[in-house]
Amino acid sequence: MQNFEFYNPVNIVFGQGQIRKLGKLVPNDTKIMLAYGGGSIFKNGVYDQVKAALPGYHLIEFGGIEPNPHYETLMKAVEIVKTEKIGFILAVGGGSVLDGVKFIAAAALWVGEDPWEFLTNRSLTVTRAIPIGSIITLPATGSEMNGNSVVTRLSTQEKLAFNADAVLPVFSILDPTTVFSLPEKQVANGVVDAFVHVIEQYLTYPVNSPIQDRFAESILVTLVEEGPKVLANRTDYDSAANFMWAATMALNGLIGAGVPQDWATHTIGHELTAFYNIDHARTLAIVLPGIMQVKRESKQEKLLQFGERVWGIKAGTSDERIDATIARTVAFFESVGIPTKLSAYNIGSDFIKVVCDRFIQRGIKGIGERGDLTVPQIAEVLTLQL
Amino acid sequence: MQNFEFYNPVNIVFGQGQIRKLGKLVPNDTKIMLAYGGGSIFKNGVYDQVKAALPGYHLIEFGGIEPNPHYETLMKAVEIVKTEKIGFILAVGGGSVLDGVKFIAAAALWVGEDPWEFLTNRSLTVTRAIPIGSIITLPATGSEMNGNSVVTRLSTQEKLAFNADAVLPVFSILDPTTVFSLPEKQVANGVVDAFVHVIEQYLTYPVNSPIQDRFAESILVTLVEEGPKVLANRTDYDSAANFMWAATMALNGLIGAGVPQDWATHTIGHELTAFYNIDHARTLAIVLPGIMQVKRESKQEKLLQFGERVWGIKAGTSDERIDATIARTVAFFESVGIPTKLSAYNIGSDFIKVVCDRFIQRGIKGIGERGDLTVPQIAEVLTLQL
User: Fold this and answer.
1) Are residues B279 and B368 in the same domain?
2) N or C: which end of chain A has fewer CB within 10 A?
3) What pLDDT does A274 receive?
4) DSSP 8-state assignment for residue A65
5) Residues 193-212 of B with CB under 8 A from A
């Protein structure tokens, strides 16, 4: 096991009816920005529950935060936070709304030139932010229990991330009944997103970390079991709850503590979203199988362990078992309705040069757990997935 | 899954050499009580590392906190904390030292009659405490990442617990090399203690909670694998680290969130310690097999799951599998050198009436996950373990 620090002070309030507790969790001595996305919270009844739970609170609404939240939109909210002297931001919606709110909360107190710089300049750290709370309505990103945020800038076609303890939500309410009204596509995206979050922290090389490995496998097996149940019957409370808790545990720092991490799939996937606006989870489903193939040697031990413990693949040579493991993973993504080839998204080989040029331009030599997935190998990954 | 809240803000700093970071974690603008036990920290070098990491800090030492820390001892520390106006307490040692420090921290700010009342009177809650940090040197209790404390009062032969967010450590440093110098008996106790902590939150009845179940099984399997390795080779760093992290994860609230919990084994075990001063873990090893036997019907589904997933028991009728599961658990405890019968500790049947009378006196009708382990059944449990 590697040395690590683990700190996660998010107060998780989980279960049906928990939105009622909002009044105890949100401060009532300050102006509150109620931030949301495209309006699903009006349809699923969450907006009404929030309003009912916060009678007399000074709420200022900011709607319209889009999937892959846009810098351009969020900066409008930053202006409102500053002008109105808002003291708390409540994010109600999916991971994009919460990621957007993390950016707003940090940008509102940023003293530098342009808040975009804490995404582009890795030497800058966010240390202050307006306090945040969240009601998460879409299990997927794990944003409800981490300090991560990913923001897209339309003008430059960039999608970049930052991480800071300062933007950890004070609390997150997870009510599984919010899953009941989700469209099939969003459930499928959420299952794959959470699955790949686990893979990025697990499918690397062994460091003798049985707790972390088994926790990761626990989440993967649960997603494989519960994901299809949620898709088949959206109002199955227990499956929704298990899916929701799995997505949170997939990216709250716990399974990644003390082990190497990859994140190459995300780094490449973000470019697919930045250039083609493909859903985040779908980009991961495209890229991951290519990385498993190209890095099958350096990931061999964990690929075999993953195949055996998650897919039950025990027979055959190492090569045969790895082939079967990759095939089984692809089949799972496809089974929930997510294509894994670029052609399914009408993307051809031209894209590969565009992405590789950007990595070269950013001075990236290699990515992944050993920093050895080079730009030519990234091209190889994408070529495999044409 | 049941509704739950999960809040655990302890900053975990894990790994070899991490005691060096103490200066960044402990405040330097207040008097610090450095609390420890019987002096093992002088032998294993931890005391010297602590002193080296805190040059110029105002440290006031309080040593001699005993296993199953005594109210009588701790109240002496409370007086010092008050007189010296101590602003931070650093616990260095095992779970008993840290449990003791939690009591000291809460008692020093208690405004009621006698701090003992927040152990005896369940309607009283600890809401304020002197901030605490810990360096845990014995993987066992999980006290480093929870708000639990158990204190023994000699004058009344009582061993009672309290729990409060206010006594959650601000940070806990876990350096696996502290395991290298532990005596065999303490390692064995730690393995069994952590194992039974998991069991108390797992071996109840199913509520469709696959993440919690699999995490629990992950910890149990890891303890079964790593415990004997640590016993066989105390300086195997990886095994020590895995054992240490398993013990922390066994009782930090995570696996118990959203599921029923038992704790009957602990409730009965505490009486064995209170009356006979038997090591805490040993009392658990005595009581648990009796409870598995007496509650084999109401625990049937989880007993079968436990047997299959942890011990690999798949063949036979349900009754045969449960018999094998209990036998395998007993064999594991015995294999690490911990006897599971009262006779091995020279305790006869007289004890049973003493314990049962106390439960009756406290007005206890039943304990366990359904509150239906009655006093006559407690007698049955103990009779089985004579």
Assistant:
1) yes
2) C
3) 87
4) P
5) 208-211
